[in-house]
Amino acid sequence: MRKDAIFIGVEVKDEYTSDPALGAKLNEVCPVNIYRGTETGVDIDEAAIDECVLCGLCYDAAPEGAVAVLKLYEDGAALR
Amino acid sequence: MSILIDKDTTFIIQGITGREAVNLTRECLDYGSKIVGGVTPGRKGREVHGVPVFDTIAQLVEHNGGVVPDGSVVTVPPAGTKDAVFEALYAGIKTIVIVTERIPRRDVAAMVELADRSGARIIGPNCLGLIVPGVAKMGGIGGPAKNAAVAYQPGSVGVMSRSGGMTTEISSTLTAAGLGVSTAVSIGGDAIIGSTYAELMPYFEADEQTQAIVIYTEPGGRMEAQLSAWVKENNSRLPIIAFMAGKFMDDDEMQGMSFGHAGTIVEGKEDSATEKIARLEEAGIPVVQRIDEIPDLVKAKIAERSAA
Amino acid sequence: MRFFEYEAREIVKRAGIPVTDYGFTTDAAEAKTIAARIGGPTVIKSQVLTGGRMKAGGVKFADTPEEAEAHAADILELEINGHEPRGVLVDPKADVKQEYYMGVVWDGAAKRPLMLFSDMGGIDIEQVAEEHPDHVGRGHFSTLDPFSDFMAKQVIADAGVTGKALQRCTPILARLAQLFLDNDMLLAEINPIAELHDGTFVALDAHMEMENEGMGRQKALIKALGIGAEEGTRETYVPSAFEEAVSAVDAADHRGVIQGKDNGFDGTIGLIIGAGGGSLTLTDAVRQQGGKPANYSEIGGNPSVAKACGLAKAVLAKDGVEKIAVMMSIVSNTRVDIVARGVIKACLELGKDPAETIAIFRIPGAWEEEGFKILDKYGIEYCDRSVSLWEAAGRAVAKIQGEAA
Ligand code: SF4
């Protein structure tokens, strides 16, 4: 699942989108509440994406390669 | 050298577990400051960026083998600030930076009065603290260590400012011009503050590194009149240059409106920008129109004094 | 927070200071009843939070209860400086021998409360201090040590007052000093405190202003005076539509602080500026270079993208504003990239080209590398700290007003 706002895009690789534990964890770490943990997995709150502060905490909380934060103003360059 | 703090100054953070205080702790540690502990009631045993947290200053002092820290940065909410500062003063702490805003005036007056009696000095409230470039910073002044390093380089000019942000703007201008900063103090923008320009002047006067002073000021209050009087009475070796913001508030259409800090309220005609500028200039303190004019004027004034 | 006279008198009375047997009402018929109870001549006084009510006809004398009713009816309808009266105070007309002034204020330079006393009461104390300085006594007192009556006595004696007046006024000024501290006042003034022909002293008018920062711990008093929470801090200032819009954006989330003002500004240069000191500096710099700002604003703390966007939208919604200048002194807490996102977003959502709409962007400091990348992408003119606030303001004036002219 990938969602793009104006400046930032957020991606959760499809194999992780139905992991409720990951959803809850991402929900907890992201300071601007971009990720939402649902009963069935992970959701991305489109309205919050542009508030991303590029802190990288979501990368730290998720398995390697599970999430990506993309800077759309830099040709979609990934934060990591 | 520097004023108020140096490389050996130890200090604590009261209210260390608050969100802003956690950032401030990180910034100060990265900059090289010696933070020897933090206090948040009920949080004993925690750590913030490796700094141990205690319930009371007494515990902290005991943990440090009875050594009382030199200073404290107070970041507790307004209702508890007076008590926190009293705790620090009773413990024997001598340099206190109060970051908290919106503290009732009665409490500020009481803290300042007790500090006077204890031979301690309060900076603030509602300020970002102070920085000795390349040595230490006490408070959020200049922001993260790497940002502070860009704006503040060691040098010869002492800076005092009622606005925290403008302390950095002015210091950065001095740094870019090769003059640098000896110590920069964000003194706070409230109606009553612990340390006014005139009260800090003797410290700068005694600091060999400092060769000139730059102040940032605003309408409101009588601090500039006090500085002018001090300059006239003390035959200071230091040239002072002032920048005054908020001149537009003198206009008729702006009457009755409030801008900026709590202290920036014009209560009488002596408080207005025009009146203050006249008073400063009368005391031989030039008031520049633009911040970018400051470095050249500082250089000229220093040259004038050394030639004399 | 300012108090109406009837509330200020109540505060004084609670502190044990003698007041006249007045009554407050919002109803002309009741004014008649109060005047009848008082018996004899009365004064009907408009209750407004503004000065100059005497001149405006908001104070009238009545000999009979009927007259009191008629005056009350008039005064209740009378707007003073745009303020509707809260009600009227019906006061017995006092048999005054002499009027005195007493007040307590904060002295920011001395960092202590200051008592003032004069035997020339009933007029503005500033005027007395200027014209008859020898008739004004002053004295600071401690916020730590217990207050003692002699401190008040010294101040009164300093004004050249002795005899019975000195003895009678001393405990009154002492109580005023105490209530000033106890109630977190910024100003506590009794003007006049009157000596009556029978030798007693009584407060004929009182002004009280409480510090907003102290209101939290003065809830009991505020409640006892019957002031509801909905009155807030009673700012008499009437915000403009723009100012209200910005307040609403600011209240929507807790990150950072934004403020906007436009009363007194009528130009076309939209200003997105900050923080406290930087905003004052930049507003001066724009005006001194011939610019006419459409507004004043402050960005403080670390606002969200939504907040910066909301402020920019509110400024762009103002009549005549086509372009904005986004400028701050070097930031260390506010983030350059977040503000950049916010203002660009505002342009895009309003269907405007950011490169055209944002005349200049001058915010150096935290996260500037990231911010500059965003500004590059949208083709916006920006500068770093090597361009002074003055120069940036000058460019804004040239780009916005130069084209319009
Ligand atoms: S980088 Fe930080 S703010 Fe951005 S999505 Fe990840 S956790 Fe949230």
Give a brief outline of the structure:
In chain A, 19% of the residues lie in helices and 26% in strands. With 80 residues, chain A is α+β, with helices and mostly antiparallel strands. Chain B has ten helices and 14 strands.
Provide tags for this entry.
heterotrimer, A: 80 residues, alpha+beta, Alpha-Beta Plaits, two-stranded antiparallel ribbon, 2 helices, 6 strands, 26% strand, C: 405 residues, D-amino Acid Aminotransferase, Chain A, domain 1, Dna Ligase, domain 1, Rossmann fold, 3 domains, six-stranded antiparallel β-sheet, four-stranded antiparallel β-sheet, elongated, binds iron/sulfur cluster, 4Fe4S_Fe-S-bd (chain A), 4Fe-4S ferredoxin-type domain-containing protein (chain A)
Major sheet of chain A: size, sense and barrel closure? 4 strands, antiparallel
Oligomer: heterotrimer
Give the total of domains of chain C. Answer: 3
Strand content of chain C is 15-25%
Which series of helices and strands of chain A comes N to C?
Answer: EEHEEHEE
Estimate percent helicity of chain C.
40-55%
Shape of chain A: globular
Instruction: List segments of chain A where confidence is low: pLDDT < 50 over at least 5 consecutive residues.
Output: none
The gyration radius over C-alpha positions of chain C equals 27 Å
At the fourth CATH level, what is the homologous superfamily of the largest domain in chain C?
Succinyl-CoA synthetase domains
InterPro entries (chain A): 4Fe4S_Fe-S-bd
Domain 4Fe-4S ferredoxin-type (chain A): 40-72
Organism (chain A): Paraconexibacter antarcticus
Protein name (chain A): 4Fe-4S ferredoxin-type domain-containing protein
Overview of the molecule:
Chain C: This is Acetate--CoA ligase family protein. Chain C: One of its GO terms (molecular function) is ligase activity. Chain C: Keywords: ATP-binding, Ligase, Nucleotide-binding. The complex is a heterotrimer of chains A (80), B (308) and C (405). Chain A has a single domain, classed as Alpha-Beta Plaits (2-Layer Sandwich), CATH 3.30.70.20. Chain A is built from two helices and six strands. Chain A has helices at 20-29, 57-61, and strands at residues 2-4, 8-12, 35-37, 42-44, 67-71, 77-78. A four-stranded antiparallel sheet of chain A has the order 1-2-5-6, with no helix packed on it. A two-stranded antiparallel ribbon of chain A has the order 3-4. In chain A, a hairpin with a 5-residue loop joins strand 5 (67-71) and strand 6. The radius of gyration of chain A is 11 Å and the shape is globular. Chain B is of the alpha/beta class and 308 residues long. Helix content of chain B is 37%, strand content 20%. Chain B has helices at residues 19-31, 57-63, 78-91, 105-118, 145-151, 164-176, 197-206, 223-234, 273-282, 294-307; strands at 10-14, 34-39, 47-48, 51-54, 71-74, 95-98, 121-123, 129-132, 136-138, 154-161, 181-186, 212-217, 240-244, 287-288. A seven-stranded mixed sheet of chain B has the order 3-4-2-1-5-6-7, sandwiched between helices. In chain B, helix 6 links the parallel strand 10 (154-161) and strand 11 (181-186). Chain B is globular. Chain C has 405 residues and is of the alpha+beta class. In chain C, a hairpin with a 4-residue loop joins strand 5 and strand 6. Bound molecules: iron/sulfur cluster. Iron/sulfur cluster binds at residues 10, 29-32, 34, 52-58, 69 of chain A.
